[in-house]
Specification:
280 residues, mainly beta, 12-stranded antiparallel β-barrel, two-stranded antiparallel ribbon, 2% helix, globular
Amino acid sequence: MPSDVDSTFAWKKKLDLSLNVTQSSYSDNWTGGEASNLTWVASANGIFEKQVSPRFNSKTTVQLAFGQTLTQDPDSKDWEKPVKSTDKIDIESVARFTLGYYVDPYGALRLETQFVDKSVDSIERYLNPAIVTASAGVAKKLWQRPEKDELISRLGIAVKNTFTQDITDYKTGDTEIYRETEGGLESVTDLNITFDKNVNLVSKLSLFKAFFNSEKDDWKGTEEEDYWKAVDINWENTVSVQVNKYIQVSFYTQLLYDKQIDLGGRFKETLALGITYKLL
């Protein structure tokens, strides 16, 4: 039987694969103009954590998702071209120095992007836009239970680079990489808690306040001159209910606020029932 020391420094790995499919169809004599449709979403969520030594902890979180919706024309009954419904790549690695102080120094690197950008239908751009955030500061584990449940918060200085593939020629599809750099203060709070073994809540609240922006001169004298100074918010919540070994119900919400993109907050909600396989 492994000792307590062995278990302390062992890898804590979790990787869930899921596939959710929603389908609806109507008979030919159905009235009202309803259209048959099919929506599928495939996702992978993983956590890989290791207490490398008594003074160093490494944790990587991976969220990948991609899905499409297919709709049938109610008149011709032909299936239209698939439309992307979900697209997400979010990978974050945090190195935390567990020195036994009240707070732990940390360094983090996060990538947020998507598999394919279809904002311009005739031109496909991959991993666009890509947001790379490097941060360093202090972290505090506010609460923890042996079952991997924890509440941890961190505060630090962050540099956010947003790489965008701008289209320079719509006929040839040529693009040019454009970079916007922001620096400021970042706060990230992660909560992972399990209720009654089969119900799990994962919540992540990210706040970013920019103190400088490499492109601020471009907006000088306009209404949008100070938009970059507003606090960016990204709050994600996932409630998962494991019905049995392979069937899972999940409810996901995301609240986004970035004044440079939209003056109002953006909200997303997904309720899904599908097949889940715990690979690790």
